[in-house]
Specification:
By secondary structure, the chain is of the alpha/beta class. It contains 14 helices and 21 strands. The chain has 4 domains: 151 residues, Alpha-D-Glucose-1,6-Bisphosphate, Chain A, domain 3 (3-Layer(aba) Sandwich); 85 residues, Alpha-D-Glucose-1,6-Bisphosphate, Chain A, domain 3 (3-Layer(aba) Sandwich); 108 residues, Alpha-D-Glucose-1,6-Bisphosphate, subunit A, domain 3 (Alpha-D-Glucose-1,6-Bisphosphate, Chain A, domain 3, 3-Layer(aba) Sandwich); 79 residues, Alpha-D-phosphohexomutase, C-terminal domain (TATA-Binding Protein, 2-Layer Sandwich). A 6-stranded mixed beta sheet has the order 1-5-4-2-3-6, with helices on both faces. Strands 16, 17, 18, 19, 20 and 21 form a 6-stranded antiparallel beta sheet that branches.
Length: 455
């Protein structure tokens, strides 16, 4: 069997079904993951969670994945159709040894994949087992276990997730907001329905039908074009807030009552301040992509700001190493330190955000306005033949700035700052710039893009 090794990414396994990711591979993933865990967990039965999203290929991939796991002696708890955060919750809260979620996140309909975790939903990334699994699969050196694993089905997980994660949050203080939500026919609809079932808000649902063909738009709210319907609906319905979730429900975006996206750096800073009220002086992690207001908002209330590389698994790793209470990624991932793991918990994010804006007693746009101090280009991708040479050139030309090489290259000047980093899987450079004025941001955006795209 030919294996396209490009499907093994830094954070997960992802490819096009059935071209380079199919049922045969799913079974091998189950076997390789079993071998990985068996090397680490001795002298006990191993119990893991398997869940899936609504993509058309997910049921058959999950079936063969489970076959590979049970043939290797692993017991499987099948939690069915769940968001990725609910999958993480089920692994961590119930104390299982790990798990695999069948999902391709926000990718278009032809994709599918696998997200893998260990105990406490700790991610299995490229350097922490995924590439080792890749090598096992290439060698195809597997043996069935003498004892076949058992399969158990477990339902009602999202309801318990809402119950557990609502504890300590006084939801009675949340006002009866009118809220428009767009789940893009993705898994976020399940979590939205579950959490709003406990609130007195007027939830206006759009594209809540689970449909792996994504008939309305790709469920990727990071791209502004995928928020157009939501923005228009918020204005037309005179709603207080709009919510958009991505394909597997682990990234959430908010739109204010004027139909404008709440900038992730501001939302991240606001949610960090909420956590720091109960945890004075604690550490908050956030990724290196430009978003200076986050650092300022953390430090404004006495928190310790800790910058990380880009990638949910890398942020979680640093949060655990530094004991951080909260983390946020520019792409819409929000991580909480919980008694049963550190991972995305958008239910907590939503409830605390709604409680906060209820207590503020003013529209969302007014709450965030004081923090709109900087102007941001958004992420711009460019195809580049020699990425390393181009990065070196950028560094040489901007050598008079303050330079960081934590992830790609970040260069800071007094009035503007930017990051350029290489894609892990494509011949792309990803670029973002932020500045104190819109005019300067546009000037530097065009100037640096011209440099990146020059021959």
């Amino acid at each position: 069997m030919y294996i396209d090794t490009s499907i093994f990414k830094a954070y997960d396994i992802r490819g096009i079904y059935p071209d380079n990711l199919n049922e045969d591979l799913a079974e091998k993933v189950g076997r390789a993951y079993s071998h990985l865990l068996r090397k680490e967990i001795k002298d006990k039965d191993i119990n893991i969670v398997v869940g899936n999203d609504m993509r058309l290929s997910s049921p058959s991939l999950k079936e063969r994945l489970i076959l590979g796991l049970t043939a290797s002696g692993i017991n499987v708890v099948d939690v069915g159709l769940v968001t990725t955060p609910t999958f993480y919750f089920s692994v961590g809260y119930y104390g299982y040894d790990g798990g695999i979620q069948v999902s391709a996140s926000h990718n278009p309909k032809e994709y599918n994949g696998f997200k893998l975790v260990r105990k406490n939903a700790y991610p299995v990334g490229g350097d922490t087992g995924l590439y080792e699994m890749r090598d096992m699969i290439i060698k195809n050196d597997f043996k069935d276990n003498e004892h076949e694993g058992k399969i158990e089905k477990k339902g009602g997980v999202v309801e318990e997730e809402v119950r557990v994660q609502s504890k300590g949050i006084d939801i009675s203080k949340i006002k009866q907001f009118k809220i428009v939500a767009d789940s893009g026919n993705g898994m976020g609809a399940l979590d939205l329905n579950a959490v709003f079932g406990t609130l007195h808000c007027d939830l206006q649902r759009q594209y809540f039908e689970l449909d792996g063909t994504f008939p309305n738009h790709v469920p990727d709210p990071l791209k502004e074009e995928n928020l157009e319907w939501l923005k228009n609906a918020v204005i037309e319905k005179k709603a207080d807030l709009g919510i958009a979730t991505d394909g597997d429900g682990d990234r959430w975006f908010f739109v204010d009552e004027k139909g404008e996206t709440v900038p992730q750096p501001i939302l991240r800073g606001l949610m960090a301040q909420i956590e720091l009220k109960d945890n004075p002086g604690a550490t908050v992690c956030y990724d290196i992509r430009p978003g200076k207001i986050t650092k300022e908002m953390i430090e404004e209330v006495g928190g310790k700001a800790s910058v990380t590389k880009v990638g949910h698994s890398l942020i979680k790793k640093q949060m655990l190493e530094e004991g951080a209470i909260f983390g946020g990624e520019s792409s819409g991932h929000y991580f909480y330190k919980l008694p049963y793991g550190t991972f995305e918990a958008p239910i907590i994010l939503l409830l605390k955000f709604l409680k906060h804006i209820s207590e503020q007693g003013k529209p969302v746009s007014e709450i965030i306005f004081p923090y709109k101090k900087y102007f941001h280009s958004g992420e711009i991708n460019s195809e580049v033949a020699d990425k390393d040479a181009k990065m070196k050139l950028i560094e040489e030309i901007h050598s008079d700035g303050t330079i960081s090489k934590l992830d790609g290259i970040s260069i800071e000047f007094e009035d503007y700052w930017f990051n350029v980093r290489s894609s892990n899987t494509e011949s792309l450079l990803r670029f973002q710039v932020e500045a104190k004025t819109e005019k300067l941001m546009k000037e530097k955006r065009d100037e640096i893009l011209k440099l990146i795209r020059s021959n």
